[in-house]
Amino acid sequence: MRFAILGISHETNTFSRVPADYHQFELSDLLRGDEIVEKFQNSLYTTAGYLQAAREFGFEAVPLMWAQTGPIGTITKDAYDRISGEMLQMLRDRGPWDAVLLPNHGAAVSEEFPDMDGEFTRAVREIVGPNVPVGITLDMHSNVSKAVVANTDICIVWRTNPHLDPRPRGYRCAELIYRTAKGEIKPTQWIEMPPLVVNIVRQFTGEEPMKTIVDDSLEALGRPGILDTSVAEGYPYADVDEMGMSWIAITDNNPELAKETAVWMAERAWKHREALNTPVASIKDALESAQKRYRGPRRLGDWDEVPTDGTALIAPEAIETADGKAPKTGPIVLMDVGDNIGGGSSADSTFILAEAQKMGVKSLLQSLYDPDTVKACVAAGVGSEVTLEVGAKTDDMHGKPVRVTGNVRAIIDGDWEDFGATHGGYRFFDAGTSVRLDTTDGHTLFLNTSRTGNTSRYGMYAAGIIPEHYQIVIAKGVVSPRPAYQPIAGEVVLVNTPGVTTADLSFFTYHGRRKPLYPFEPDTDYVPGR
Questions:
Q1: How many other C-beta atoms can be found within 10 angstroms of the C-beta atom of residue 334?
Q2: Is cis: bond before 209, omega within 30 of 0?
């Protein structure tokens, strides 16, 4: 049996001013054939799960092509036409197929197709016909459409955020598709899409109420006849009709049970809609609190292991408790929500850095995307003192450049490997040429020439930076940096900064979303089973 593997993975921030053109995909990932195997076979990503299933069940996995770029703006028509055109031609030319496996993200938007994943799955289905099983595994931040579910036999969503389970979820998708191809099961799916958005700051599956929502999906999975259940948190920075949460239930030829189960999960979550949209700390409050609550450095090797088996992370240990439990040591990690690199932001926001300078905060560490500043530091050389304007050069949404004076301590190529648990299961990282700059006011800046999410500490280690030794560490993200930084943190604090991924959704003007939709319209009603 021959299973094709192909897909386009993109989380599209429609408010970003950086278009996802063909060149952006070339800079990131345009992989063909064995290149896909080489990149993913030893990773924790979805495709690794597909390849593992092929080995264990004995079908032939045929990787065709995979395209991915970091979360930025809308995919251009030219990029989608060229990439999908090449992929789909491979699918036509190299058949016939016994099944198809798609490792898409699920929140892609192109200039021509607001529901790009829906269009892509439609085209795949048109090529292979109605009788060839098609499976897709999606990121938990997917805005899943009814079209995607209708065009596939199995639609599975990751269960954890940060994303530690792409591989086992990919494996499950491939397993069910294999059983479908063998004629052992006849999958039926139902997607339930209540008019509900969950704020990005409440999407950590180790904290309530999201933990309970995921637990409900696992309880529903135990029902007789249920093959799989999924919760998609949605991606609020894509201005499209399907934006928001959704629930999927899959049965063996029992459409009524699929609908009943998906509705049950969604109705239980609807009761938590207010808690799913509560605010977080301001910049000033977060910095003041961090200075008061810092309890000393954490030594290397002191922390607990981050789980790698796909289970949700345990909620962060309390800094202070009613019973007087001793607080954790280690840096206070401030999550820069408005500059969430994994959500399509610029990676060069300076709002927290500027406020820290103003307040006289010391011992602060953060990364910044700033190719011009890196170039200047490289020209000056290691050991040189430089005065530079850093950050806020991508657009006018992420602060203003901050003037710093500091010593260039290290210059590295910014290419590293992380064998630990990382958000999304990625193993290889490339921040481009990177510089460690220690400023005269007590800060350390890790300056990069590529936008790389703060999902691994090992680039900093390569530059001689030990995050465990700082009082405050700024991580540009919301949940994705947790596997890297929560194990060393005294506390993790979400900070409501401005920017293209701000937690304040009133900042954006939506044109394509559904109406009414909670919390934009607070009196929204939910009619189950539509």
A1: 28
A2: yes
Q: Is 454 exposed, middle or buried (0-12, 13-18, 19+ CB in 10 A)?
A: buried
Among the listed residues 495, 468, 497, the one whose alpha carbon sits nearest the alpha carbon of residue 392? 497
Among 268, 202, 188, 278, CA closest to 233: 202
Tens digits of per-residue pLDDT, 86-131?
999 999 999 999 999 999 999 999 999 999 999 999 999 999 999 9
For residue 349, give both structure tokens.
């926001």
Of 480, 426, 475, 455, nearest to 141 by C-alpha is 480
How many structural domains is the chain composed of? 2
Are 291 and 273 members of one domain?
no
Q: Is residue 287 part of a domain?
A: yes
Alpha-carbon distance of 267 to 330, in angstroms, equals: 40
Q: Provide the token pair at 1.
A: 């049996």
d(CA 314, CA 312): 6
178 occurs within a structural domain = yes
Residue 186 sits in the same domain as residue 293: no
C-alpha to C-alpha distance for 491 and 399, rounded to whole angstroms: 25
Total-model pTM: 0.85
Distance (Å, rounded) from C-alpha 288 to C-alpha 297?
A: 18
Q: How far apart are CA 154 and CA 131, in angstroms?
A: 13
Q: Tokens for 374? A: 């890196």
Helix (H, G, I), strand (E, B) or coil at 472: strand
Quote the domain boundaries for residue 154: 2-277
Burial of residue 131 (number of CB atoms within 10 Å: 0-12, 13-18, 19+)? exposed
Before 130, cis peptide (omega within 30)? no
CA–CA separation, 27 vs 230, rounded Å? Answer: 32
**Tokens at residue 268, please?**
């239980």
Q: Across the chain, which distance is largest between two alpha carbons, in Å?
A: 70
Based on C-alpha coordinates, what's the Rg of the chain? 23
Of 150, 172, 35, residue with least CA distance to 101: 172
**In contact, 216 and 176? CB cutoff 8 Å:** no
Summarize pLDDT for 209-219 with one digit per residue, the tens: 999 999 999 99
Amino acid at 195: P
Domain termination residue (choose one: 256, 277, 298) = 277
Chain length of the chain = 530
